[in-house]
Amino acid sequence: MKKLLLAVLLAWPVAASAQEAAQPEPAAQPEVQSVAERNKMLYSLGFLLGDNLKRQLILDNEDDYKALSQGMRDSLLNKKSQTDLEAYKPDIIKKYQDDAKTISAKREAAQQEYMANFKKEKGVKTLDNGAMIKLSRAGKGKTPKADATVKVHYTGTLIDGTKFDSSRDRNEAFETKLTDVIPCWTKALQQMKPGSRAKVVCPPDTAYGNRPVGQIPPNSALVFDIEMIELGA
């Protein structure tokens, strides 16, 4: 996850005369900068591809990483494969399937542990659909009805803290009807008054269920930090 980009340094000859010194420097620096930025962009792309692979495959050691990266490098450089690709396709498919089961089982166990621990925390209220809410600030006024319009700020993460969305990052509050959001929100926001703030934990079946959504894998428990700004008409 860490990056080290090669800096390109250009040394220009020292001007031998006052006239040369007065001339503007050659326009090489912008090119160097663009190369550096391109390298950063491509590094970021590689990192994201690796992150995606990491979510789908179990790579146990340095030899795994080397073999995988060598295969990718040879392919990108249009080199001939060092293996019979067709012969290994069944093994590749089986690895994806086996690893998916293992990763899913580990994630499910971690989610169940996270939700069980959160449920034990002081002040947590479990709602009738399984969603859980813990108010950190009470707020004032009325709570919304199930079909009300609300304006909120929120940050959404997976249980490991991976952020997948945030109105705060966009610096723009989110306005919605409670009938148009996931069931977890519909129930949890009815517990909140204007000015209140809460941590809301949504079991998978109150969120997106077995549907993958953006960075959210299927069957994910979601965690939201929600601040109720105001109720709509």
Provide tags for this entry.
single chain, 233 residues, alpha+beta, Chitinase A, domain 3
**Overall average pLDDT:** 86
Low-pLDDT residue intervals, each spanning 5 or more residues: 1-23
Record field, number of beta strands: 7
Provide the helix percentage: 40-55%
Describe the protein in words.
The protein has 233 residues and is α+β, with helices and mostly antiparallel strands. Among the domains are: 28-82, no CATH class; 125-231, Roll (Chitinase A, domain 3). The protein contains six helices and seven strands; from the N terminus they run ααααββββαβαββ. Strands 1, 2, 3, 4, 5, 6 and 7 form a seven-stranded antiparallel β-sheet that branches. The chain is elongated and about 70 Å long. The two termini are 46 Å apart. Residues 1-23 have low confidence and may be disordered.
SSE layout and pairings?
Blueprint: H1 18-22, H2 29-56, H3 62-76, H4 85-120, E1 124-126, E2 132-137, E3 149-158, E4 163-166, H5 167-170, E5 174-177, H6 183-188, E6 197-202, E7 222-231
Antiparallel strand pairs: 1-2, 2-6, 3-4, 3-5, 3-7, 6-7
In short:
The chain is an alpha+beta fold and 233 residues long.
